[in-house]
Amino acid sequence: MRKKMIGKSLLFTALLAVLLAALSPIFVYKTEHRAKLEEGLYLSDDQYDVIFMGSSHMNGGLDPNVIWNQQGIPSFNYATGGQSLDVTYYLLKEVLKTHKSPFVVVDLFYLGMTTQYGESGLISNTVDNMQFSGNKLETIWNCVSPQDRIAYLLPVLKYHFRWSSLQEKDFGFDVASLYYSKGFAAGTNRYGKPNSEWKATDNRIDIPEKSLEYLNKIIDLSKTENFDLIFINMPCDYSEAEKESDWVNDCEALFNTVADVAQENGIPFLDLYDKKDEVGLDFANDMNNAGHLNLWGAYKISSYFGNYLAENYDLEDHRSDSAYAQWNEDYKYSQAASVT
Amino acid sequence: MQVKGVAFLSFISLEFFLFFAVSAVVYFVLPHKFRWIWLLAASCFFYLCYNSWYAIFLGVSTLVTYASGLLIGKSARLADPVRAARQKKIWVALSFCINIGILSVFKYLNLFSEIGAGILSLTGVPTAAAHFDLLLPVGISFYTFQALSYTVDVYRGDVPPERHLGKYALFVSFFPQVTSGPIEKSKNFLPQLDEVHIFDYDRARRGVLLMLWGYFQKMVVADRLGVLVDTVYGDQAQYYGLASIVAVIFYAFQIYCDFAGYTNIAIGAAEMMGFRLTTNFDRPYFSRSIQEFWRRWHISLGSWFKDYLYIPLGGSRCSAFRRCLNLMTVFVVCGLWHGDSVNFLIWGALHGLYQVAGLLSKRLRKNVRDRLGIGESSAWYRALQTAFTFLLVSFAWIFFRAETLPDAAAMIGNLFRFNPASLWDGSLFSLGLTQPEFLAAVLGIFVVAAVDFIKRRWDLRSVVLGSNAAVRWSVYLTAALMLAVFGTYGSEYNAQQFIYTKF
Lengths: 340, 503
Description:
The structure holds 2 protein chains of 2 kinds. Chain A is mostly helical. Helix content of chain A is 49%, strand content 6%. Chain A has 18 helices and 5 strands. A 5-stranded parallel β-sheet of chain A has the order 2-1-3-4-5, sandwiched between helices. By secondary structure, chain B is mainly α. The radius of gyration of chain B is 24 Å and the shape is globular. Residues 1-6 of chain B have low confidence and may be disordered. Chain A binds chain B through residues 1-2, 4-5, 12, 15-16, 19-20, 23, 150-151, 156-158, 160-161, 163-165, and chain B through 14, 28, 199-201, 204, 434, 436-437, 440, 473, 476-477, 480-481, 484-487, 490-493.
C-alpha cells in the first residue's frame, strides 16, 4: 500500500512537472534576449565564424551586421544583460552543440562580480531562454542560488503572476521580427558626459574566486573543443560598478591581472577601454550611459574589431557566398544601416 | 500584536512540504512504540523553527498542565471527599493562574498598564501608561486553551490523568495544529496516540484532497482578496462607497478562507498520518442566525468556551437575564482572546449583543411571521435569514479588521458615502487588483460558496475518490495547476501570514 502511494506520488509529480514545463514558455517574458537565443541556438541554420559572449556591454557593443557589411565575416552576438561568467560558460557549451569551432569572443566585464551567484532577474535573461538540456540543468545547478533552482527549472513558478497580463505574443512569439539583428541591440541615447577621472595603474588584484574558476573553465573548453578565444573589455566608466558591494573596487587592476592570465595562456586580450583613442571613441557622444556603448559607439567598436579580425586571422569573406545572400538583405534592416 | 519568529516552516513553503513528507514517511516506517517520539521530535523542531526562545512557554504550559493532571488524580484518590474536592480545585486554580498568567503577560500587559494608569489618574495621580513591546509567542492562545482543557477534563473525570509526559507533550505540541488549532480536547486526541495507525491509502488520499482544498482557499482566494482589503483599509481617506462595501465583503471571505484554509491543511496533514482532528468550520456563511454561526465558525474555540465558560456560568438553564449576561460574558472574553484591543472587545460584544437581541426578539419575530403568513421553512425566508446573518457577521468583522476604533468608525462611515460612478468608471480595479485579478477573486468566492453549498448534501471528497481514475487524476492535476498558476506566492505577491497565527 505504501509502495502504491509512493509510486503514484512520483507519477503525479512527474505529470505535474511535465504540465508545468509545457506551460512555462507561455509565461516567460518575451524579450529580445529570448528572441536572440531562440534564433542563435535553435532556429538559425547559418554557420557563424565568430560568436560573441558576455553581458550587456557586449550585447550592445559588437554588431555582427557591421562586421558582415565591412568584412564579410558571419557572426552572432549571444550576450545577454547580466550574463555572469559561469552562465557564459554553460551557454557557450550549448552554442558549441551547433556551431563547431568558431572564434569565441568573450567580454570579461563580469569577472568583477564578487558574489557566488549573479542577480536572479538577470540570469533569467539566459537561463529562461535555453531549452531543456544537460547544459541548462548544469547552468541552474551551478549558477542559481539553491532556493531559486526549482523556479528556474519550471519558470511558470516564478512568472505565474503574469496570467492576468498575458498577450497574444506570449502564445506565439515571433522571433523573426528580430532575426536581422544577429543578437545585437544598442541604445540610442548620448551619455553627454566625459569619462570619470581615473589613473592608470600597474597594480594587480585577484580575480574573484568563482569568476576565475569559470575563466579557467572557458580556457580549458577552448582547448578541448579546439576553438580560438579572444578576450575583450568594452569601454566603460568603472566608477559606478566599483561602488557596488558585489563588485571589485579596482577594475583597472583587475584587468591588469586578466592581461597576465591571457598572456600566460596565449589568448589575445583587447582592453578597448585602453584603446578608445585608437578607436576614435568620444565618451560623451558614443556611450549610451556610463557603462554601455550607444549605437554610434558600437559602430566604431565593431568596425575596429572587424578590422582586427581581418588583419590577424584567416577568416573567409562570405559576402559573395550565395549561402549567405540573406545577410546582405538583413543588413538593410539593421541598426547599423541607420548609421551609414 | 507581532508574532515572534520567522515562518521558516510556514504551511505555504517548500520547506514544509519536505518536512511533512519526511515526518509522515518516517512515522509509518517506525514501529508503533517509537512513533510518539518521532512525532514529538518533529513537533518540537517545527515549533523551534518559529519560535526558539519562546518555546520555553510551550514547555512551561505543558509541564504545568501535565503536573496538574497528576495532582488532581492523586487528590481524587483521597479518602476524604471534601478535602479531595478542595485540593482538586486548588490544582485547577493553580494551573489556570499560571497558564492564563503567561498568556496575559504577552497579550494583555499593555491593556493592564493602560487600565492601571487610568485608575491612578482618576485618583489624582497623573500617570503615563507604560508600553511593553512584547512579541507574542506563536500559537500561545491555542496551546494554552488546549492544555487547560486537559486540566479541566481531568478535574471533571472526563479523562484519566495522562502519566506519559512525552505523549502528553505531543498532545500539546502536535505540529499540524500547534500554531492555530483546531483546539483539541484531550479526550479526543490523547487516546489516538495509543492507536496503531497503519498506512491507509484511501485515508491518505482524503488527507491530500483536504490539504489541496486548504491551499486553494488560502493561496488562490484569501490572499488575493487580502490585496484589495489591505488597500482599502490602509487608506480610508481615499476609498469609500462601493470600494468600502467590496472591502467589507472581501474581508468576510478572506478571513474565512484564510482560517479554514489553514485548518483544512492541518486536518488533512493529521489525517494522512491517521489522526482525526476536530472539525473547525462547517459552512459558516450559510448560517441562519448568529447562534448557528457560532456552531459553524471556529467550532473548537466555540466548543471550548461553551464547555469551560458558558456552561459553568449557568449556560441556558437559568433566567433569561442570566442567560443574556452569560452570553455577553462569553463573547466579550472570546473577543479578548483574540487580543487586547478595544476593537476585539467590540467585535466580541457585538456577537454577544446579536445573540441577546436574537433571544429577546424570538417571540416578536414569530408573531410577525405568523401575521404575515410566512412559513419558517420557506426557501426565501431562509435565504433572507442567511443574508441577514452574513450582513451582521460582516459588519462585526469591520472591528476585527480595522487597526483602531477610529479606523473602524471611518470604515462604517465610508460604507454610506455612495459614489455611483464607481460602478462603471473602473475604479474598483485600481484597488490593488487588476480587472482579471478582481474577477478571479470574485470567482474564488463563488467557488468557495458553491463547494460549501454542495457539501450540505454530498461529501465531495468521497465523490472525487469514488470516481474513476481519469476523473480523480484530472481533479488532482487541475487543483495543483490552479495553485501553481493562480496562487499568490513568489516575488510579485506579498504572501501573507495566516491571520490566526497572530493570535
